[in-house]
Write a structure and sequence with these properties.
By secondary structure, this protein is an alpha/beta fold. It is built from eight helices and ten strands. A seven-stranded mixed beta sheet has the order 6-5-4-7-9-8-10, with helices on both faces. It has a three-stranded antiparallel beta sheet with strand order 1-2-3, with no helix packed on it. Helix 2 packs across helix 3 and helix 3 packs across helix 6. The protein is globular.
Amino acid sequence: MPIGDDKGEIIIVYFGLIFLIIQTRPKKEGINPGSVFRSRIMTGRNKNMSLQKNKEILLIFVRAPERGRVKTRLAKAVGDEKALALYKQFSKASLDAAHAWAEQGSTASGQALRQVWICFYPQEKLDLVTEWLGRDHIFWAQSGAGLGERMAGAMAAAFDQNAVRVALLGTDIPQIRQAHLGRAFECLGSKDVVLGPSLDGGYWLIGARWDRFSPRLFEDIEWGGDSVFSATIDRCRENHLTCARLDLLRDVDTLADLEAIENKKTGKARI
C-alpha cells in the first residue's frame, strides 16, 4: 500500500506480523533522503535477535489533525476549531516530553538507545501528519480492527526492532513531563508492566518488557469507558504479570477536564 507525496514515496507492505517500510528516492531534487524518514526498514518478529535487544522505544499514538475528527467530546462544548487547536497543544506536550526523554538516552559515542515513534492513524493520512509534525521522525502506521489491536500491534512491532522495554503514550495529557516517562521505563526494570492511571478510569501510558509482553493486555477491554484501567489490571493478574502504577493524571476529553486543568494552572479553586 503506497503512501506518498511530491517529496517522495513511502511504501508500506504488510504480511501478517511482518511489515516493511521502504522509502523511495525523492521526486524533487535537493531533498536528502536521510532527512525525510529516519526509519528505513522494519521487519517482523525475530526471536533469534533477543541477545541484541538494547533499546527503549516510546510510542506516541496520534490521530491526523482534522477538524471534527479529534477531541470530539470536547468539541461539543468549545467547537471544532478550538478542539483542534487544543489537540495540537496537548500533543505538543507529549512530544516535548518524549523528545526530552529520548535525548537523555544517548551513549558517550552518540549511539541512540532511546527512540520515539509517531504511530499515526488513519493509515492514509501520513501526508497530513508530516505536514503537522515535520518529517524528522520515525513514523509507524497504526493497523488493526480496533484500538486494542492497534496498540498491541504497535508494541509488538517495537519489540521486533530490538526494544527491551516499550511504552505507549497518548496525546491528551497536558501534565505529562519527561520525569513521568523516565519513571515509567525505570519501573520496567523490575516489573513486567507499567500503567499510568487517569482520572476517568483509563490510563495515559502502558508499558511492558519484551520478555513478558502479552497482547492479551488489550483484549476484552471496553475502550472509552471508565473501567479500562481496572480491566487491564485484571488482564495482568490473569496472565501472572507484575504491574507498577505511576502518578494519577488527568486526560482532557471534556469541558470539565479542560476547566480543571486551566484552574490548576491559575491556582483557582473550582466552585
